[in-house]
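Subgroup meeting minutes
Present: P.N., E.W., G.H.
Scribe: E.W.

1. P.N. recapped why we're keeping a running log of single-chain structure predictions: easier to compare across weeks, and new members can see raw inputs and outputs side by side.
2. G.H. added today's entry (133 aa).
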Amino acid sequence: MTTDPLSNIISTIKFDNQGLVPAIAQDIDKGDVVMMAWMNEASIRETLKSGRVCYWSRSRKSLWKKGETSGQHQELVDFLIDCDGDTVLLRVKQHGVACHTGRRSCFYRSVQPDGSIKEIMDVEKDPSELYSS
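Output recorded in log:
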């Protein structure tokens, strides 16, 4: 009888009622959070087996290998599970930009003390170049 080596990891994670868990991606070199997405059991298995981050796309209702259309992929360095098991932190080597807006991070809008929102990050890559194929 062969046991699934990933079953212990999967059993540690508390998925929501849709079978999803929030996944935060943090750049290993700079330490900044580059994005948040969702993972399900299949995307976690694919990520851990391949070393390339794979998420679950709620809009497409399918696996989404980060960078499959843009080329801006994430290489998994470390996979961490929080104390409650209901969030995962992916420490990644970010190849290119993480955000579909062409910015390094999806977190580029900062709420200011006066209530305004300030963009604190420039576009590094024209989004039309990311998704031209």
